[in-house]
Structures are given as structure tokens and as C-alpha cells.
Amino acid sequence: MDEIRDDSPTVKALELKQLRYLVAIVDTGSFTEAAHRLGTSQAAVSRTLSALERLLGVRLLHRTSPRARILLSGADELVREATSGHVRLHIGHAWSAFGRRTTEFQRRWHAEHPETELRLIRHDSPTGGLAEGLCDIAVVRSPKELAPWSHALIGHERRYVAVASDDPWARRRHVRLGEIPARTLLIYRRTGTTAPDLWPEHERPAVEYTHDIDDWLADIATGRFVGITPEATVSQYRRPGVTYRPVRDADPVSVHLIWRSHDPHPATHTVIALATALYREGGDETKVRP
């Protein structure tokens, strides 16, 4: 199919209602539930989707819904800004934002940039909601998520081992990376920063996987597993039954901001500057050797 230009009659004929209906169908999983959410009939939802598919000449549900969500989110934001004169900035993260620097970031932002409303959005995806169109900028701690986004390094965080509070390691000041293979390591597969390649191939620990950070914490509290995580988790996820101790000889985790190259938020560089300053002021968690 030929490429559709932004100024083509097809694009001009698109309606926000059609995108909104498409996103509702994907989110709810059915035409009936989508109709209930939208306050309309199932027949109206079906007709709207069919009209959009005829307009574009493709089947839509599995091909274009992420893009529709991005377009719809941007359009909604544009309407809010135009009618209120107030700009919003959404910063996404998978589970810990800026860690112990998060509150100070929010305080300084509200004090120094009151014209731009800041909202932090937690979304359990590798890009913290950026790929899903839910935020303008996202905090990520995985180098593999940097492409294809524009990105900036803002700091580093030490790695910590998470253990049950009655574990003998909880009474120690630190744990060495080479001691971990004696235990079973629990890895949060979806957005975690730990992988078996932290160790040489012949020295890797036994590994189990989980798909939710709350389950990760709950399983570690049982004493059956240990986990490794950046310093941000220590401040954002304090949990009874779980104790964190520094891993002395592990390389730190790099913290980046990512954003869409073609459509950066006007405040992007201001966010980078403030976040970088906070990591510098609070002590960038660099590599610590014994």
C-alpha cells in the first residue's frame, strides 16, 4: 500500500472519534465492552471501526492501535492546552522514577516551573509508557531500550541485593557479586535491570523469573530467593520482611531519559538538566570497589 502523507485526503478525513473507538476496542478486548465504556451501542462501535478500515484499506486492530493511542493522547493534550492555557508534562517510569530523588524533583519542578504541570506515570513496560503514548519522557535503566529514542544519561545507581530480613546476609554491611551464585536469583523479567550475564558464564547463579515487582518482593521475603536491584528500588519499595544491602563489586546501573525524536516536549532539556543536577548533588551512585 502506498505511503499516506500527512496532508493527504485520507489523513484529513480521519476523525478523533474513530481513533478513540479503536483504542477502546483494544483496551477492553471486545466491541460490547468498548461500547459500554464509550456510552454508545455495539453497532455504532462496529460501524465506526469498519469505516476507519475502509478509509485506510487495512485491518486495524493488531497493526495500528499503538499508533492510534499516541495520536489520540497527543490530540487530547493539545485540546487541554488550548482550552486551559496550561501545559502538562508526563514523565513515565516502570517502577521507581528517580528513586530517592523523586520527591525533590517534584518539589523543585513545581517551584521553578509552575506553568508546566508535572505528572509522574508508572507503566509496567520496558519504555515506561513512552512507546504506548502515555508520557512525553520516560526514565529507563536498561541500555537496550535506548533505541530508537532520543536519550540522555542523567546518572548512575549502585546495585543492592534484596534478601529476607531474617537472612544471614541481612546482618552484613555488604555482599559481593561473587557470593550471589550460591543462592537462587529471582529476576523481574519485564523491566528489571539484572541478567545472568552479570557473571562469567561458568559462574552464574540459578535463576527464577517473576513478572511483577510486588511478587518479586513477596517471594524474596520468603527467604527462597535473593534479588539484585538498583538503589532506586531501596527508597521506593521498602517492604516489611525485605532488607537491602550494597553489592560492593558490581558495576552501577545507568539511568537515562528517553523521548520521541520527532516530537520532543518543550520542557525536555529542562527535565534533563534538573534530573542530572539532582543525581550530581545527591551523590551519583558510581562503582564501589572493596
From TrEMBL:
Pfam families in alphabetical order: HTH_1, LysR_substrate
GO cellular component, one term: protein-DNA complex
UniProt name for this protein: Bacterial regulatory helix-turn-helix, lysR family protein
PROSITE patterns: HTH_LYSR (PS50931)
GO molecular function: DNA binding; DNA-binding transcription factor activity
InterPro entries, sorted: LysR_HTH_N (IPR000847), LysR_subst-bd (IPR005119), WH-like_DNA-bd_sf (IPR036388), WH_DNA-bd_sf (IPR036390)
Family of the protein in this entry: Belongs to the LysR transcriptional regulatory family.
Coiled coil: none
